[in-house]
């Protein structure tokens, strides 16, 4: 009996040791995280089927004449397009200009942020692409405004004007004004390159450089950029050059007419 009892105690001790080791090596929170991730993707699929499938197709490959494919655009493109109200379109012929986002995707509400994250997770899980940064709000604002200004003038001012007031490009394209863009929207726009905007990967602009550009845009908001003069619509060199050309041409014609009258 003593020997049998000793063997039973040894077996029990071995079972306890194996169970404790398993609990340490495979903790429950990891399983819960994986389940939550799949639940988020499933929620994003449901949102996609309600709001996006008619234009972008059941398999994200796009629909001819309605919308492009979304394979590879990534979570960053989803956040920018949907949080700024550019998508979903009310009608297929609408242009993707900034407007109030749908209430279910409003980034200012907790439910809207959750839906944006879920929709982005579904798109990300089906093709990959650039992802929305983990930082939010003030964490995306850099500390070197002067450096951000240099980078902005080099990479952004030709389209968005020197202070983010937008501008005019060829073929009727219109770079948007940046006065309402949040740090998250500016960062994801640089990652995803919407419309005519180029993509700025982390090799072209490091995360810190992107944050410095955001700091510059925020720093020049609300400034009076035409002290003692005319704003000319604040459309940048295109409008200024046109006004200079018209004024100069009228002046030349006037001078020529005056010389002809004198002679």
TrEMBL record:
The protein's Enzyme Commission number: 7.1.1.8
Membrane-spanning ranges: 242-261
Domain spans labelled Cytochrome c: 39-221
Residues noted as binding heme c 1 in the record, renumbered to the chain: 52, 55-56
Location(s) in or outside the cell: Cell membrane
Membrane-topology annotation of the record: Multi-pass membrane protein
Pfam family, one: Cytochrom_C
Main location: membrane
Binding-site list for heme c 2: 156, 159-160
Catalytic activity, reaction form: a quinol + 2 Fe(III)-[cytochrome c](out) = a quinone + 2 Fe(II)-[cytochrome c](out) + 2 H(+)(out)
Keyword list, A-Z: Cell membrane, Electron transport, Heme, Iron, Membrane, Metal-binding, Repeat, Respiratory chain, Translocase, Transmembrane, Transmembrane helix, Transport
MF terms in GO: heme binding; iron ion binding; quinol-cytochrome-c reductase activity
InterPro entries tied to this protein: bc1_cytC-su, Cyt_c-like_dom, Cyt_c-like_dom_sf, Cytochrome_c_Oxidase_Subunit
Post-translational modification (record): Binds 2 heme c groups covalently per subunit.
GO cellular component: plasma membrane
Complex and partners: The cytochrome bc1 complex is composed of a cytochrome b (QcrB), the Rieske iron-sulfur protein (QcrA) and a diheme cytochrome c (QcrC) subunit.
Name this protein carries in UniProt: Cytochrome bc1 complex cytochrome c subunit
Lineage: Bacteria, Bacillati, Actinomycetota, Actinomycetes, Pseudonocardiales
């Amino acid at each position: 009996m003593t020997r049998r009892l000793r063997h039973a105690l040894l077996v029990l001790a071995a079972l306890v040791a194996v169970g404790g080791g398993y609990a340490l090596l495979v903790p429950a929170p990891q399983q819960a995280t994986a389940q939550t991730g799949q639940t988020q993707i499933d929620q994003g699929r449901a949102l996609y089927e309600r709001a996006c499938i008619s234009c972008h197709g059941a398999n994200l490959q796009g629909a001819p004449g309605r919308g492009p494919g979304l394979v590879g655009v990534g979570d960053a493109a989803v956040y920018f397009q949907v949080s700024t109200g550019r998508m979903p379109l009310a009608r297929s012929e609408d242009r993707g200009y900034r407007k109030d986002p749908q209430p279910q995707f409003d980034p200012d509400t907790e439910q809207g942020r959750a839906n944006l994250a879920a929709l982005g997770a579904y798109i990300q899980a089906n093709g990959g692409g650039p992802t929305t940064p983990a930082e939010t709000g003030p964490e995306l604002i850099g500390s070197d405004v002067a450096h951000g200004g240099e980078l902005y003038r080099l990479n952004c001012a030709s389209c968005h004007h020197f202070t983010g007031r937008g501008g005019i490009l060829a073929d009727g394209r219109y770079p948007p004004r940046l006065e309402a863009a949040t740090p998250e929207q500016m960062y994801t726009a640089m990652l995803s390159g919407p419309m005519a905007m180029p993509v700025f990967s982390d090799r072209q602009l490091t995360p810190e450089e992107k944050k410095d550009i955001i700091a510059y845009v925020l720093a020049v908001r609300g400034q009076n950029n035409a002290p003692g003069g005319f704003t000319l619509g604040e459309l940048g060199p295109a409008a200024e050059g046109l006004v200079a050309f018209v004024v100069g041409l009228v002046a030349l014609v006037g001078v020529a007419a005056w010389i002809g009258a004198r002679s």
